[in-house]
Amino acid sequence: IAEGKDITVNALCLNSGWSLLLIREVKETNRNQTPILVSFKRKDNDKLDLSFALEPAGQNELRNDAWDIKTNFNEVESHNAIRGKGYYWNSNRDQHPGMYFEVDLKSVHHISRIQWSSSVFVDGSIHSATPRSLHITYSTDGLAWRDAYIIEDERDLSMENDKIIIHVGGIPARWLRLTLTQVALKPWIISECQVFENTTDVER
């Protein structure tokens, strides 16, 4: 679908009278996927807009067996971030600029997506500690770093099933570093951290 192009297709007539389906591609920043705006229309010009993203084919979750984790707060528990459901890393300090969480994937991959949960169940209640702001950088040698993603307001984070989803567009990276850039009077929690690589259209 070309950007901005509208395509009208026939749809099943529903009891409520919705009978026209309009699909239009919408570009968003910091998204490798193509968000799609879907509009259902009736003859009386009522309209219902829905928005979702098509998942690109060829994504593979990386194994985390040998990953090294580095952080400048509570590093002793940092591997809890990748141990799966029920485990988590907590900074144990309020968020402030320069606090970081770094992953060494041990080899270069073409990274398409990073995701994690910042909500955990502790002592009978849900604790949420999303980053107030976030700067993601990446490197192939641990020396030269490039920008992959910048967000200044946590309300703009893409959330899906209580997980933060970051699309980074197939960047070649061995190291990924998540760095906070603003103060927040809450800790930073990372649980079920996963990294996906793009397995299609990659130059080997």
| Residues in β-strands, percent | over 45%
Shape: globular
What percentage of residues falls in helices of 4 or more residues?
A: under 10%
What is the N-to-C order of secondary-structure elements (H for helix, E for strand)? EEEEEEEEEEEEEEE
Low-confidence stretches: 1-5, 24-35
Distance between the termini: 28 Å
Biggest beta sheet summary: 9 strands, antiparallel
Output mean pLDDT: 79
Counting H and I runs of at least 4 residues, what is the number of helices?
0
What would you report as the Rg, rounded to the nearest angstrom?
20 Å
Count of beta strands:
15
Break the fold down into its secondary structure elements and pairings.
Elements (H helix, E strand, L loop, with lengths): L5 E5 L9 E6 L8 E8 L5 E8 L4 E3 L6 E4 L17 E2 L9 E18 L1 E4 L2 E4 L5 E6 L6 E6 L7 E2 L2 E17 L9 E10 L6
Question: What would your notes on this structure say?
Answer:
- Helix content is 0%, strand content 50%.
- By secondary structure, the chain is mainly beta.
- The strands form three sheets. Strands 5, 6, 7, 8, 11, 12, 13, 14 and 15 form a nine-stranded antiparallel beta sheet that branches.
- β2 (20-25) and β3 form a beta hairpin.
- It is globular, with a radius of gyration of 20 Å.
- The model is unreliable at 1-5 and 24-35 (pLDDT under 50).
